[in-house]
Structure formats: C-alpha cells, structure tokens
Recover the amino acids of this structure.
C-alpha cells in the first residue's frame, strides 16, 4: 500500500512538471464557444492556455505575459488578426502564430517578414487537426526544453 501511494505521488509530480514545462499558448477569438472549445481541447492535452476575446485584450495579455504560440482568428471586432500578429512579432512577444479562419486568402495580408512564423488553418478545424498543428508548432521548443527523463548509471 505504501508503494502504491509513493508511485502515485511521483506520477502526479511528473505529470505536473511536464505540464508546467509546456510553452504557454494564447488563443484569440471573438466567438466564446470556439474559444472555450479550443481551450478545453488543448488543456486536455496538457498545454497551458490563456484566452482573449478581442485584439485589445490579446495585446494587453501579451505585453504582460510571455507566450510561445498564438492562435488568432483573422476577423475580430476591433482589429484584424494579422495586425495583432505583426504587433506581437515586432515586440518579440510571440514566436509562432496559427491563424484559424474561414478566409483562404489570409496569407496575402501577412507581412512577408513574419510569414515564416505563421501557419493558416481553415475553419472548421477538428480537435485532431488543432492538436496536431499546435504540437507541430511547439515541437522545436519542446525538444530544446525537454528534461532528461532517463539517465545512465
């Protein structure tokens, strides 16, 4: 019984440690249902997620916090997603951007300097596609920040 308790304690600590190591993600969408759905899907996968309902809130949060990845809707009530992306890139507050939109021509509006940081997902986006795209965007940083879980004796 003691061994089981210790094992569960260690397992829970490892899960918490791995979750704390995931790079933070900012999701920006004016549709609260989509915002909550994406947040739940990504948190269920162990990612740390913050949300914003408009461009102003997104920029305020990004200036106060550090995010590695932003998921941006293209059309927001106060500012275009591409303008948010440009601002975050200029201030070096974001490393990667996933645009989630219904507009296939969005890449025409992205500043060429920042295109290599961006990927566009066309709505509707399945949970599987969302997780796969986030994992792909975060892969380089996860490899660099991964702790050594197995050591040689």
């Amino acid at each position: 019984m003691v061994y089981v308790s210790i094992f569960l304690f260690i397992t829970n600590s490892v899960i918490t440690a791995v979750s704390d190591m995931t790079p933070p993600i900012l999701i920006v969408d004016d549709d609260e249902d989509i915002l909550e759905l994406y947040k739940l899907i990504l948190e269920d996968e162990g990612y740390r997620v913050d949300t914003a309902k408009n461009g102003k809130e997104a920029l305020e949060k990004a200036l106060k916090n550090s995010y590695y990845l932003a998921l941006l809707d293209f059309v927001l009530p106060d500012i275009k997603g591409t303008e948010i992306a440009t601002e975050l890139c200029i201030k070096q507050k974001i490393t990667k951007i996933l645009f989630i939109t219904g507009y296939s021509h969005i890449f025409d509006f992205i500043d060429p300097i920042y295109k290599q940081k961006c990927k566009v997902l066309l709505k509707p986006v399945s949970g599987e596609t969302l997780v796969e795209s986030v994992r792909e965007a975060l892969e380089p940083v996860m490899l660099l920040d991964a702790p050594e879980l197995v050591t040689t004796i």
Summary: The beta strands are 25-28, 49-52, 69-73, 96-101, 118-122.
